[in-house]
Amino acid sequence: MKARVNGTTWLVGNRRLLEEHGIAIGPEYRDAEKRWQEAAHTVIWFADAKAVRAAIAIADRIKPSAAEAIARLKDAGIKVYMQTGDSRRTAQAVAKAVGIDDFRSEVLPKDKAAFVTGLQQQGHVVAMVGDGINDSEALAKADVSIAMGQGSDIAMDVARMTLISTDLNTIPRAITLSRKTVASSARTSSGPSSTTCSASPSRPGCCIPSMASCLTP
User: Fold this and answer.
1) Concatenated DSSP letters for 94-141?
2) Domain 66-215 falls in which CATH fold?
């Protein structure tokens, strides 16, 4: 964010914003930045046109169900990725805490969407889970788009599915139910005119058995 107050230009944002405006981060801040990021905090910088004047660290609480849900997805043969606009250190700390091996940091909304498209071009069926405005473009691209019920309105508008609960274990449960439904339909169907659950994200009660799943922290 950039604003002008009483004739002074102020910048409030991440390291990339400061770099774009040629503002250097002094050594007195670097050690604190490293400590905060390694503790999974996001660093917000405050600077005028000349130098950094202050910094704060904020953190979202990792959902208690996150590690278990991710482990269940991996056990089901689903590849899990995490995409975030946070710094690499912060993303790495979060990924390590919840058991995610593949993560992408410092990504913009368009980058999240491009990553989803890239996985699809490799032949994967992609489920995207997100709750913020920055996730909406990627949610729109995904084969299965899942919004968290306490997220932004635009994320819920774009997503094909909204989870009322904040429990991430509802995701692997939904996929397990979908696979059992598809398997049961396939066993009981007969003849060329019979109908089975098509695994379309627009069909209620159906979820594509994803080969790849993208999460946002």
Assistant:
1) HHHHHT-SEEE-S--HHHHHHHHHHHHHTT--EEEEE-SGGGHHHHHH
2) Rossmann fold (3.40.50)
* Nearest Cα residue to 87 out of 14, 1, 12: 14
Q: Within 10 A of 44 (CB to CB), how many other CB atoms are there?
A: 15
Span 49-105, pLDDT tens digits: 889 999 999 887 888 899 999 999 999 888 999 998 888 989 999 999 999 999 999
Domain 2-58 has CATH 3.40.1110.10: yes
For residue 13, the cross-strand partners are: 45
Rounded to an integer, what distance in angstroms lies between the CA atom of residue 45 and that of residue 193?
62
pTM: 0.70
Average pLDDT of the segment spanning 94-117: 92
Q: Which phi and psi (to 5°) does residue 102 adopt?
A: -115, 120
Cα distance between residue 45 and residue 66, in whole Å:
29
Q: Quote the tokens at residue 113.
A: 């969407």
Question: 195 pLDDT band (50/70/90 cuts)?
Answer: very low
Antiparallel, parallel or unpaired: β 42-47 and 8-13: antiparallel
Task: Report d(CA 172, CA 108) in Å as an integer.
Answer: 27
Q: How far apart are the first and last CA of the chain?
A: 22
Q: Where are the domains of the chain?
A: 2-58, 66-215
Q: Are 140 and 159 in contact (CB under 8 A)?
A: no
